[in-house]
């Protein structure tokens, strides 16, 4: 295998089969910004850096067969192309989505022919997990005798997606989702290439990066859409969301009275005015409103406005639904009224509702951050070898049945999402949370 004289060769315009500049000028933005050497890869320094697995392989001028495992848009294809260029291998590529046995045989035949002429090949197989077990076995003899250096790419866990024989002959390298700084670097490169700044405010820029969820290709495609339009003023986050994800409007076909009354019922329940709540309930049912619609809204209220201040509120509503379906109208409407009274007179808390909104918001902002390795199951040898489950503390074996371990993803600070109120049953929950917090502080001090 040819030795590489420069780990990140700046003097090479492109990889082996890259198109010329004229062709690239009309290509999608993501293709125009495709890295020209390993030094331009963003977000994967743990692999491409001088101390990383790829960096060491390239410095030695010798590659082993590799499986790249990582989310979409993190550079798997680009790295494979640049690896071939860096060590002087012929680059071949296949997509398991569009290829079959005939394509594999043809690729191996070409690799054999080139090997006999003294030119070894790097065979890149995208979505390698799409090949079945028998097809995966077909790679083995060619990998073993060195006809090809196999570089596979997968978004699926190799432990489950690839057979053990193939895994034993390859090195699994994990690509990280691109973080904020890496995605920001891509946008900066795009702006330099286009000669224009993105027509968005700083807040919208941050929202755009967050929406990419670590996918550089997706981010550049969104940026390309923004570059293609002329805007008088930069887009703020709401305008950006509307511009990139248009949705059809939903129109009210039932009349304002329908929604006015259900809103009044909801507000009366929230305000603990049992008399007004019963009045609006009666207004709706007497007017012919579908009882199950009212019950659906009451079930929602039980979780949104009462929650764990009185966990029985939800059970009362579900029991009322069951009673109404069993008895029918008008007898079953008494169960609805009973549930209405219970909701109006129960202690109120929107802590669960607020916690849900905060959790959903946090999940969207942080995307696909991986949980800490110590709390991940490790049913396979590969997963154990890369640290899954290592150091897990089994709470039942701890004093007080509480380990105080960290369960948050690496790179994310713990967030307080649920904050119980001092009303009803949530007063007891607050005591438990305070107790566990004290134990955690003692264990970590």
Q: Overview of this structure, please?
A:
- Residues 1-23 and 246-253 have low confidence and may be disordered.
- It is built from 22 helices and 5 strands.
- It starts with 20 loop residues before the first helix and ends with a helix.
- It has 445 residues and is α/β, with parallel strands linked by helices.
Count the beta strands. Answer: 5
From N to C, what is the helix and strand string?
A: HHHHEHEHEHHEHHEHHHHHHHHHHHH
- Count of DSSP H/I helices: 22
Q: Distance between the terminal alpha carbons, to the nearest Å?
A: 54 Å
How does the major sheet shape up? 5 strands, parallel
Outline of the structure:
The protein is an alpha/beta fold and 445 residues long. The protein contains 22 helices and five strands.
Annotate the secondary structure layout.
Layout: H1 21-25, H2 29-32, H3 45-48, H4 53-60, E1 66-69, H5 76-87, E2 90-95, H6 101-116, E3 121-126, H7 133-137, H8 140-144, E4 148-154, H9 158-161, H10 164-168, E5 171-174, H11 180-194, H12 202-211, H13 216-227, H14 237-244, H15 256-270, H16 274-286, H17 291-306, H18 312-327, H19 333-345, H20 351-366, H21 381-385, H22 426-444
Parallel strand pairs: 1-4, 1-5, 2-3, 3-4
Helix pairs in contact: 11-13, 15-16, 15-17, 16-19, 17-18, 17-19, 17-20, 18-19
